[in-house]
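Table S2 (text version). Query chain:
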Amino acid sequence: MSFLRRLFGSLFRSGGARSSGDPNAVYIHVRCRFCKEAIRVRLNRTSDLSPDDDGGGFVVRKSIVGQKCFRRIEVDLAFDRNYRLVSEDVTGGTMITAEEWQAEHAPAS
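Corresponding structure-token output:
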């Protein structure tokens, strides 16, 4: 039985970064202060995030423009070594949770 688990185990595992299909990404969610659009932004761990000066985490500065209006949302973010958000500075919008973004983009039933 352990032979079958080793052979087919990856087919039945759930959860984790690999099952998300995008292990190299960090997603953030913002809301435009002007048009109230909820926007999801994909940050690539290898090309968008830079090591911070202390070497203990990562930083990123992004300009975000949604589809409803053309006003910029500027974000300055800091992450720890495990890619968890530790500080944020947002101009032109606010950070929102993934659940808030999902609630607005869920398919209508």
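Notes on Table S2: The two ends are 42 Å apart (CA to CA). The chain has three helices and seven strands.
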